[in-house]
Amino acid sequence: MLIILDLENSKRVKQTTQSENKPMKxxxxxxxxxxxISKLENLEANVSKLEAMADTKMTRFERKDMGFVMxxxxxxxxxxxxxxxxxxxxxxxxxxxxxxxxxxxxxxxYGVKDLDKHKARLEALGFPVGPLMDDHADSPWHDKLVxxxxxxxxxxxxxxxxxxxxYQDGLIPFQDA
Length: 177
Known about the structure:
Blueprint: E1 2-6, E2 11-16, E3 30-37, H1 43-54, E4 59-63, E5 68-73, E6 78-83, H2 89-101, E7 104-111, H3 115-124, E8 133-134, E9 145-155, E10 158-167
Parallel strand pairs: 3-6, 7-10
Antiparallel strand pairs: 1-2, 3-7, 4-5, 5-6, 8-9, 9-10
């Protein structure tokens, strides 16, 4: 994948896959994926059940720096996270969520075309928007997508996450109806 960045303005200028030299694709004004939260001791069983129900395989990744384990299937739009035992600044929020609400849907990632413009629009409307989150270089899918997200607040018991996620062509298995 070839990514050209404008570091001075903190934005992507051009993104293409080297093999096909085509622009990457993204969900815009559409749900990108859904994330559930699980207790660590139930994580494997919960993932196994979700994989069976959705007929998909999820990939495990540990973010020890942030204190959580995640399973993801970008192809199916499914994510499950669980906080690790060792406390971190990030996983304390996950633990508080579990303590208050239990296991279940935690967030909906909503695809946007331009994260900065969407952030500015929401802030002008009085919605607080969180800091930029991006993919970790060690993730097993780092070469398949470019990920930037921001938390946009809570809506009806779930978090809304703004996702500016560019997928390598062919990663999402679109089919004719």
